[in-house]
Amino acid sequence: MSDVKHRVSIIGCGRLGQHYAEIYAALPNTEIVSIVEVNAARRAVVGERFGVKGEYGDVKEMLKEDVPDLGVVVTPTKYMKECVIACAEAGVKGISTDKPIAARLSDADEMVKACEDRGIVFAGGNLQRAMSEVQEAAGRLHAGEYGAVRGAVVHGFGGEISGGGCQYVSVLRLLTNAEVSEVVAWGGPDEAMERDDDDGLIIHGCFTMSNGMVCPVFGEQLTEVNHGVSVWTEDALIEWAWGPPNVYRGFDESGARVKIDPKYTPVEAVGSDYMYTSIQSFLSAVETGSKLWISGHDLRQALEVAIASKLSAQRGSVPVKLPLADRSHCLYPRAYRWLGGDEVGQEQPAEEARIYGFAMVQEMKRKRQQAQKK
Fold this sequence. Notes:
α4 (80-90) packs parallel to α5 (105-118), α5 packs antiparallel against α10 (296-314) and α6 packs parallel to α7. By secondary structure, the protein is of the alpha/beta class. The protein has a domain at 129-260: 2-Layer Sandwich (Dihydrodipicolinate Reductase, domain 2). The longest helix is centred in the C-terminal third of the chain and has 19 residues, at 296-314. It has helices spanning 15-26, 40-49, 59-65, 80-90, 105-118, 132-142, 165-176, 190-194, 273-288, 296-314, 335-339, 350-355, 358-373, and strands spanning 6-11, 30-36, 54-56, 70-73, 94-96, 121-123, 151-155, 158-159, 180-188, 201-209, 214-218, 228-232, 236-240, 246-251, 257-260, 320-321.
């Protein structure tokens, strides 16, 4: 970490925004100088909780008063473009957003371009692509430590291919070091195919990568273990299944793969490990120009693959080449991602916002697991 103290504005202080605030508040080289939140009661509670004096109900109001170094956009997807563009035009040095970046592809293009044109670092957010172990496994693959990548597969590309599906696409692109250049897909159920969102949509098919590799895609996970992205070389298999990748190297006497300890470099994280490493990558890129572990471009690419997948399935599994020529194509995420919890009946009480954090979430998960065992 450098001695520079970055002035941060958290734009959107729902549950996810509060997680971001926890990490930024704990880092020695960042200071939260303002928050933007439309819910007045929650805004007051979160401002008090993190000791922030700059409280605003609108991003443009905040930017008129005080332009931060970093704009951390954690609003529902519907409002991300407005916030990103406003921060870019105001001269914020670095902007981060979260998933999915947009519904309409042209909106994602505008955000990426607005930042590129002004030399602004545009980071992605809370994606496992930014997990240190995923980055380390990818680095070893790219360096040839495990040999040349010969194939890849995606398991479980369904349920919400724009919202959660961007995790799969982002990890696939990283591990294969390639772009998705063509999609052929089959989708269902019928009611999900007819809607304009990705709620409940299951996609099967194949992605052709820019390096010529053909990657099968399964919409439903085949076993409890197989969900995520796997790539393989002649004698190694790297499996990402929502956590540090498992690595198999060589074969035993029966011909089965042998699981090895990859000895990943340990990281002391605050809160969510991959949110923390995503933020650290963002700060490093702003300070030194280093490469982002997850960028707005990565989120845009994931959205484009999701849109192309549904298009292919709707048109009778025709091959759809990327990049898409028509940038007006649109795929809405589930309502809670698009509109936020307040607008879909999942409003967070102000008293919960006073104490909501990683420790509370972990305790809630523990209680649910205990209840399920009973």
